[in-house]
Design goal:
alpha/beta, seven-stranded parallel sheet
């Protein structure tokens, strides 16, 4: 039975599936991009600048394109979206955090502009193209949309906003055939938290809070994202799927 489900197409992508992974040159974004390539999709992965693109862990592939995209730039985002003749899915995983610095108003505004407003810019820019293909959007939220941290007020606020933006747009654009969901990663080992992970006591304290007793890896987020873009998820919209190793369950 399980084999029949996997091979009947509901857990597959069509042969001409095009996905834009915004922030796809980063840690989690690169793993999402890799999985879509493994599934046969055409992938465009972005980085905020040439240095980010050049530093990516993604390897050259005949179905992979990489591009520079600043999600805070309206004209750049609109031009980027307009360049797609076909788009089936958009993944929003461009984001930053500035631990302790987010109490400064300019830093606070910058984090929101990238993480929240940038997500909306991209969604809005791709709306028409996704409607033509009954496409999907998956926004990368965070466990910290639900469990706040004291040193990152802007990051927590922005990710809480991403959750409600996801739900609002899912209702607004359902009639156009666009499905919009979010994945909320928990403690995943990435370059963003490398400094914090250097504290062995802190690292183990977090690991012990999860059901699995460990931090997650970037590729453990990718599967949830891909699933939400598949035909098997055709009745799922406006939801947030936690990939947090059971942290929020405790």
């Amino acid at each position: 039975m399980a084999a029949d489900i996997v091979t009947n197409g509901r857990f597959q992508l069509n042969e001409d599936f095009h996905v834009a992974v915004i922030g796809g040159c980063g840690d989690i974004g690169a793993e999402i991009s890799k999985l879509f390539l493994e599934l046969g999709a055409h992938v465009t992965a972005t980085g905020v600048d040439a240095a980010s693109v050049n530093a990516t862990l993604l390897e050259p592939h005949d179905r992979l394109q990489m591009a520079v995209l600043d999600v805070t730039n309206d004209q750049q985002v609109n031009a980027f979206a307009a360049g797609f003749a076909q788009i089936d899915a958009v993944i929003n995983c461009a984001g930053i955090l500035r631990r302790d610095e987010e109490f400064q108003i300019e830093v606070f505004k910058k984090v929101l502009d990238i993480n929240l407003t940038g997500t909306f810019r991209v969604c809005n820019a791709f709306r028409a193209g996704l409607a033509r293909r009954a496409g999907a959007i998956v926004n990368i939220a965070s466990m910290n949309a639900f469990a706040a941290l004291p040193r990152m007020p802007a990051y927590c606020a922005s990710k809480g906003g991403v959750v409600m933006l996801t739900k609002s747009l899912a209702l607004a654009w359902a009639a156009e055939g666009i499905r919009i969901n979010a994945v909320a990663p928990g403690y995943i080992e990435t370059s963003l938290n490398a400094a914090g992970r250097s504290d062995a006591t802190h690292y183990q304290r977090i690991a012990d809070r999860t059901a699995f007793g460990r931090w997650g890896q970037p590729d453990e987020v990718a599967g949830a994202v891909a699933f939400l873009c598949m035909p098997a998820a055709s009745y799922i919209t406006g939801t947030v799927l936690a990939a947090d190793g059971g942290f929020l369950a405790g």
